[in-house]
Amino acid sequence: MNSITSNPARWENPVRQSQQAFRSLLQALSRPCMPVSMPLPEGGAGSLPPELAAIALTMCDQDTAVWLSPSLDTEEVRRWFRFQCGASVTSSPAMADFAFAARPEDMPLLSDLSRGEPEYPDRSTTLCVGGVSFDREGNSLSVLASGPGISTSLMFYCNLPEEFLGRWEENHQAFPQGVDVFLCGQSMVAGLPRSTCLKAQKEETSCM
Amino acid sequence: MLTLQQDSLRSGEKEKMPLEGYNFAYLDESTKRMIRRGLLKAVAVPGYQVPFAGREMPMPCGWGTGGIQVTASVIGEEDVLKVIDQGSDDTTNAVSIRRFFASTTGVKTTTHTAEATIIQTRHRIPEHPLTEQQILVYQVPLPEPLRWLEPSEKETRTLHALEEYGLMNVKIYEDIMRHGAIAMSFDYPVRVNGRYIMSPSPIPRFDNPKMHQCPALQLFGAGREKRLYAIPPYTDVKSLDFEDYPFEVQHWDEPCALCGARHTYLDEVVLDDTGKRMFVCSDSDACAENRARQGMTEVSHD
Residue B162 burial by CB count (10 A; 0-12/13-18/19+): exposed, middle or buried? Predict the structure, then answer.
């Protein structure tokens, strides 16, 4: 607890750095499945990965409800969110504007999060997942991504569990309702808006 | 006169410091965060209008308060800003918005499309092809394409939710019945990513094809109506039409009177009261570039 009170994660220059972090997020979401680097805050926020802390500092405030995955749901992290962002922590994923999961294994089911309403699909949860690796080698998931923001199609590699593809398909089919996901790790963020279509692809041999 | 003097003084200064006493880009940080959250949703659901809590800006509604709030939430110190009004960099609206951001952010401004990273526009898309590194911000007066057909916001939201766009087809059909052609010359509705029908803001329909599979991110802000929407890069944008009455852009019989370009959008300029007129490029930067390429001298504005 001491480490966080003495050196909590925060921006050195909030105006400039949150703008830069937002542009990373905007670019990530408008060019899905292409990881972009993002600025990271100094200091720690308990078990919250620095990329997720950057998203929280940029996007969350008193108007947003935040859900934390079980491994993040400690007094230290809750306190950091309350003090640094002013955000309230909710125990119900469907009530959250932003959901944070420290690792891919901690991800909640996409169907447990809010998809918004047919008239207001923007009232949905944005899921932010940490500990993601985008290396081509040794990753469990290789997919062919297509949709708005992607010129024709592109290959995407990450360490999400294989079950994710089926859940994502369901989420994508609900368009315009649905959950948007930010995958973070290695100081990078990749966007996965609900409009993106993911198809399992073992090898980069045939592209449609 | 006073403003002119101040402007020349300011441009004479070596380093441009943002205005003291104001936050970077005028808006406070929590307003920016609220708009940024809206923009992310807008990008995730292309063509869908996200409501946002539009703020009072130091200029009246109708002067691009929506576009300004979007630009203010997106812009950073490294950005280079271009502002156009009907294609021109030197009209009142463009000059005042460019000056607003120059003084509240200190960013570099430009009139050259290729140099800009953010282009805020009123009613035109630049002739110069946009790149992946650019963001185009539109000022939107009426974001709802169905508004003239259905006055109730609750109704139009339901129509969008149900993808019930029969009304719009009837409107286009009636146009053809009455005029023999689709008679919308600007603000020509489009379908984004095969789902939402969207108002492209009052750009001439000449510009509609430029939105299709555009490499740049396109953001739209309506200040009075408090709506945000977006078209991500490389997204299908189809202008509404019928198979037997396909969408067509405007054509002119003569080239631009200044630069001779044949494939740009031309404005009609009335020269005198005896019916003399000329047609010139609406995009003043593209026109000047064309003339420079041909070795023509800068046209004097005196």
Answer: exposed
